[in-house]
Amino acid sequence: MNIENLFLLIPDFCVIILAFIVILIDLFASKRNDFVLALISAGGLILIGLYIAIFGFNQTGYLYQNTLVVDQYSTSLKLLFVFLGVIAIFSSKNYLTLNLKNPGEFYAIILFTISGIMLLISCNDLLTGFICLELISFGLYVLVGFDRFNPKSNEGSLKYILLGALSSAILIYGISYIYGLTGSTKFDVIQAFFVNNENAASLNSAIGLGLIIVGFSFKVAAVPFHMWAPDIYEGAPLPITAYISIVSKLAIFAFLLRFAIVAGLPAVEFWQPMIISISIMSMILGNFMATVQSDLKRLFAYSSIGQTGYLLAGVSLLYSPDGLSGFVLSAIVFHMISYAISGYTAFYSLILVENNLKSTKISDFIGLSNQSPLLAMIFTCSLFSLAGLPIFSGFISKFYLFSSITHQGFIWLASIAVLASLVSLYYYLLVIRKFYTPKTEISDQNFNTSSSSFFLLCLLFILVILLGIFPSYLIDFFQTSQFVPGGI
To answer: For the CA atoms of the chain, what is the radius of gyration?
Structure first.
């Protein structure tokens, strides 16, 4: 590795430095100032994002003997996750001021997890990816229990640590199996082994890949390894619920895509049936369980499980007899982006409501349209987008994803996904009905929301609309050969 290649990791290093700067400012500040810390954290990420957008796409290469790779795929997704990090920080500001202490530590841990995500996206090695994944997980364990005087937060953190440790043990066991079989954890070496030994050790290959799939299924809360998600989503501080549901989940999918594309081609017959089965269970159970929830955080947990099912359906069909399908890859990545924007619009709306109502119970949202008509309208549209209704981004991304599944010949799987999506529309309508149900008793509660919070919410809402109307710009880029992981 040339020392010049280290410049490829400038954005990653800058995020780590930014996290330490935030800690030091909070340490030496004479009084608590949430706004300054949030501004420094988000402002630093914006500058890093600008650097990636201006210089990152012209910088590609391998580092540490192909352990890390910086290509168009990783650069594009780093830009996405830096943007989501800015949203996570700004959406946490008011909630943190009202409910939590130690803002510097809170923002710093978020920044450390973002640095782990940026490295994870670039990983071309299973073991390095596992280390990056644990860096993310350790931060999330702390953030889930950050409200340490809340028993549900403590319970959620403990469950997350125990089940996270279990999933990590399964994952590292699967990685060790693959290492013992192939002699390496690097994706290109694993692929070469399977290509040159098509009929050798098929059972061992299936066991190793199976354990890896189970470990990652735990991490993304796919059925039947989802049992931790509802309790942890309910117990975590609301901004962290959003962060786990969207940012950390999509980061793992970004790594899974690279692993499936670079290392998994020769072993499709092993992992495809397993992932399809997990996908179907996630779509069905996630959406049907959401229909009986009375708390919106738990509803979002099961809805997120359903979204995991849609993405896994796409991952399972990345390859056809003709090779890698650029159609499916672009559909998966576009749905990831659409889900991220629509999901954060919905979660940010919920954060603003919870800041005023001090509740996430669906029954407490009665009359929301009278208290804040604009917020109720944006919240409604974000839920419609998650359900997949036109003209929102969720419609075009689901249409594109389900079409790509059909294009691979799995019409029955696309049909299951469509039916599951219809179920999601039902339970979202149950929530929306509460927004527009008049209150039987008059409330004198003032609904206070800062202009800066509304500005960010409106910006997210505009993106939901724009992605639904003008999706071709992103889709065309995702279908180029340079975007394929490893396509430097």
So the answer is: 22
Q: What is the pLDDT of residue 488?
A: 62
Q: Quickly list H helices, 373-450.
A: 373-387, 393-407, 411-435
Q: Are strands 319-320 and 61-63 parallel, antiparallel or unpaired?
A: unpaired
Tokens of 478: 């995702």
DSSP secondary structure code for residue 456 in this structure: H
Of 213, 212, 204, residue with least CA distance to 183: 204
Q: Which two tokens stand for residue 321?
A: 């007899």
- Phi, psi angles (nearest 5°) of residue 61: 160, 175
Q: What gap in Å lies between CA 267 and CA 253, rounded to an integer?
A: 18
pLDDT, tens digit, for every residue of 320-338?
777 778 888 899 999 999 9
Q: Which residues, including other chains, have CB under 8 Å from residue 38's CB and lie 6 or more apart?
A: 89, 90, 92, 93, 103, 107
Q: Burial-class residue 182 by CB neighbours within 10 Å (0-12, 13-18, 19+).
A: buried
Q: Which of 118, 107, 119 is nearest to 42 (CA)?
A: 107
Tens digits of per-residue pLDDT, 98-108? 776 778 888 99
DSSP-derived 3-state class of residue 10: helix
User: Residue 146 corresponds to which tokens in the numbers above?
Assistant: 């950050």
**Which pairs with CB-CB distance under 8 Å and at least 24 residues apart come from 223-228?**
223/278, 223/281, 223/282, 223/285, 223/286, 223/305, 223/309, 224/278, 224/281, 225/167, 226/282, 226/285, 226/286, 226/305, 227/163, 228/159, 228/160, 228/163, 228/164
User: 146 with 207: CB under 8 angstroms?
Assistant: no
pLDDT of residue 84: 94
Q: What is the pTM of this model?
A: 0.93
Rounded CA-CA distance 247/336 in Å is 10
Decide if 473 contacts 395 (C-beta within 8 A). no
Q: What confidence category does residue 200 fall into, taking pLDDT thresholds of 50, 70 and 90? A: low
> Which is more confidently placed, 485 or 242?
242
User: Is 251 within 8 Å of 121 (Cβ atoms)?
Assistant: yes
Give the residue among 438, 316, 304 at the shortest CA–CA distance from 367.
438
> CA–CA separation, 223 vs 286, rounded Å?
8
